[in-house]
Design a protein that fits this description.
Blueprint: H1 3-34, H2 41-57, H3 66-96, H4 100-113, H5 115-119, E1 123-125, E2 130-133, E3 142-146, E4 151-159, E5 162-167, E6 170-175
Antiparallel strand pairs: 1-4, 2-3, 4-5, 5-6
Helix pairs in contact: 1-2, 1-3, 2-3, 3-4
Length: 179
C-alpha cells in the first residue's frame, strides 16, 4: 500500500470511530431520558442492561462497532415497543378493573399522548432525532431520519405509542418517545 492509501484507511477508521462514538453517546442519552418516563421496573432493568453494555464497549474498538451499536438501538426500540404493549394492555385492563396501578399507567399514557388536544395543534416537534418508518413495526424499514427540533404533521395517533406523520412529503410512522 502506498502512504496515501494507508493515510486514507486511517482517516476512514477515525471518521467511523467518531461517528460511532457520537452514536453511542446519543443512545446513552436516549436511555437516560427514557427511564424517567417508564413506570415498570422490568423495563427499566432492561434499559439499564443496554446502558451498561454501551458503557462497557466505550473503551473498545468503536471503529468496528457499527453493527453492535445498531443491534443495541434495535434492542432499545424493542424495549420501547414492549413497554408500549404493556401500557396498552394495562390500559385495557384498567377499563374493566379500577386498580390504582392500572389507573396510574393510564393517566401517564394519556398525559404523554395528549399533546395534540392540549395544545390544539396537529404539528409536533421532535425532541430527539427520530426514525420515520414505513410501518408501525419496530423493525420496519427506515424511510428517513428526522432531526431533533424539526416539526412533523400528525396524521393520526398515537396508536400503541406510534404516530402516523407526514414530514417533507413523506408519510410514515414514528414512536412517541421521540417527541
Amino acid at each position: 500500500m502506498s502512504s496515501s492509501e494507508i493515510l486514507n484507511v486511517a482517516m476512514t477508521m477515525q471518521k467511523r470511530y467518531n461517528q460511532n462514538q457520537k452514536y453511542l453517546y446519543d443512545m446513552k442519552k436516549w436511555i437516560l431520558e427514557l427511564k424517567p418516563q417508564i413506570s415498570e421496573q422490568s423495563f427499566i432493568t432492561r434499559l439499564d442492561k443496554e446502558y451498561k453494555d454501551l458503557t462497557d464497549i466505550e473503551d473498545g474498538d468503536l471503529a468496528r462497532a457499527t453493527k453492535y451499536l445498531k443491534q443495541t438501538e434495535n434492542a432499545i426500540q424493542e424495549i420501547i415497543s414492549d413497554y408500549n404493549i404493556w401500557v396498552n394492555q394495562n390500559n385495557n385492563n384498567s377499563q374493566s378493573n379500577s386498580s390504582n396501578q392500572n389507573n396510574n399507567v393510564e393517566v401517564t399514557t394519556r398525559n404523554r399522548s395528549s399533546n395534540l388536544s392540549v395544545f390544539g395543534q396537529n404539528n409536533m416537534t421532535l425532541t430527539f432525532d427520530g426514525k420515520l418508518k414505513k410501518t408501525e413495526h419496530v423493525l420496519s424499514e427506515v424511510i428517513t431520519i428526522i432531526p431533533s427540533g424539526k416539526q412533523v404533521k400528525v396524521i393520526s395517533g398515537p396508536n400503541g405509542g406510534v404516530y402516523k406523520v407526514s414530514y417533507n412529503g413523506k408519510i410514515g410512522f414514528i414512536n412517541e418517545l421521540y417527541f
